[in-house]
Specification:
InterPro entries: Beta-ketoacyl_synthase, Ketoacyl_synth_C, Ketoacyl_synth_N, PKS_Beta-ketoAc_synthase_dom, Thiolase-like. It comes from Hydrococcus rivularis NIES-593. One of its GO terms (molecular function) is 3-oxoacyl-[acyl-carrier-protein] synthase activity. The protein is α/β, with parallel strands linked by helices. It has one domain: Peroxisomal Thiolase, Chain A, domain 1, CATH 3.40.47. It is built from eleven helices and 16 strands. Strands 1, 2, 5, 6, 7, 8, 9, 10, 11, 13, 15 and 16 form a twelve-stranded mixed beta sheet that branches. A hairpin with a 2-residue loop joins strand 1 and strand 2. Helix 2 crosses helix 4. The longest helix is centred in the first third of the chain and has 15 residues. The two termini are 13 Å apart.
Length: 377
């Protein structure tokens, strides 16, 4: 059964879906030096507003956008929901923790159930009025692609005709910043994927939600179609608590599984949206993986130089940009790269060209590997 995408809702530091796409093509970055927490130093961040956003607010905004884009009205009682986040409502829990170590009399936990990791999925289910399945995957930076893959399977197996899927992340919190700083993973000035002088990752806020439907349902209601989900690959290195395996074995299996499920050869991929975090280790590992599996010098770019790293939402945002590339037949540039040390065919300037099939990569902490293939319908 063919599974197509009939709606996209996206919000990040570049703006909405259309705003983000235009800013990407103009090679603009939404990353700015910010100091949202007075107890911490200034960092380059990809904030949506002037201060860190909240997960529930971001969920509501992006879900409303995707329903409008797909021309759907609520309630949608038979619509599945697969909406993930790697951090969830962590900001609320950090606030609880600070109160425990300060004025305990001010601690209010009456609504703590509303801050559990699955809150984004629950909030979305309530907003659309569904009584169907509700899933809330959490797989570090691979969360977004994992969520879309689960939704794809639910439709392919005939369990649902329509599923809303994606990921939401509001990761700019004191603990998240301090943690990545202690690991030596944060950049000092900006995000420069695959660049010779890259410094590390830049945290960004963002979300992307897709409406997936069976092709039969989409065509019957005259829906506009962005593209089609072709297949996916999910693996885990299981070798280290945070670092990826240096041999690329598990990541290679994820790519090959995706190609096999999609009935594709490597040479049939026209564009890869790379994970491209701008860290020394990830970019070197990913470049080696692409060079070994795609010898035809496929076009590659990472958009994190413009959006920052939205952690669990990054794969869903990357998939959305792949769908835009398929629809508009334009290659989005790798914003931030000036001089690369890798033999990749990096898209340094946006340009038009034939894009029939694209892949999106996500590689998360703990060796979580997720790959998805998308094509024109």
């Amino acid at each position: 059964m063919d599974v197509v995408v009939t709606g996209i809702g996206l919000l990040c530091c570049l703006g909405s879906l259309s705003e983000s796409w235009q800013n990407l093509l103009a090679r603009r970055s939404g990353i700015k030096l910010q100091r949202p927490f007075p107890e911490l130093p200034t960092y380059p961040l990809g904030l949506i507003g002037k201060s860190p956003t909240r997960l529930t607010k971001l969920t509501q905004l992006v879900l409303s956008a995707v329903l409008e884009d797909a021309r759907l009205t609520t309630p949608l009682p038979d619509c599945g929901v697969v909406l993930g986040s790697s951090r969830g409502c962590q900001a609320a829990w950090e606030q609880y923790a600070s109160q425990l170590h300060g004025d305990r009399d001010s601690l209010q936990l009456e609504n703590w159930l509303e801050t559990l990791p699955n809150q984004g999925a629950i909030a979305a289910a309530r907003q659309i009025g569904t009584t169907a399945i509700v899933l809330a995957p959490m797989a570090a930076c691979a969360t977004g692609i994992w969520a879309i893959a689960q939704a794809f399977e639910l439709i392919q197996q005939g369990k649902y005709q329509r599923v809303i899927a994606g990921a939401i992340e509001a990761p700019v919190t004191p603990l998240t910043l301090a943690g990545f700083q202690q690991m030596g993973a944060l950049a000092a000035t900006g995000c420069y994927p695959f660049d010779k002088h890259r410094e590390g990752l830049v945290l960004g806020e963002g979300a992307a939600i897709l409406v997936l439907e069976s092709a039969e349902l989409a065509l019957s209601r005259g829906a506009s179609i962005y593209g089609q989900i072709l297949g996916f690959g999910l693996t885990c290195d299981a070798t280290h608590i945070s670092a990826p395996s240096i041999d690329n074995r598990s990541a290679t299996i994820a790519v090959k599984d995706c190609l096999e499920r999609s009935h594709l050869l490597p040479a049939e991929i026209d564009y890869i949206h790379a994970h491209g975090t701008s860290t020394k280790l990830n970019d070197a590992r990913e470049a080696s993986l692409i060079e070994s599996l795609f010898p035809h010098r496929v076009a590659v770019s990472s958009t994190k130089g413009a959006t920052g790293h939205t952690l669990g939402a990054s794969g869903a945002i990357g998939a959305a940009f792949c769908l835009m590339a398929l629809k508009r037949q334009e290659f989005p540039p790798c914003v931030g790269v000036k001089e690369s040390e890798f033999e990749l065919n990096l898209v340094t300037a946006p340009h038009r060209g034939e894009i029939r099939r694209a892949m999106c990569f996500s590689f998360g902490f703990g060796g979580q590997n997720a790959v998805i293939a998308l094509g024109k319908f």
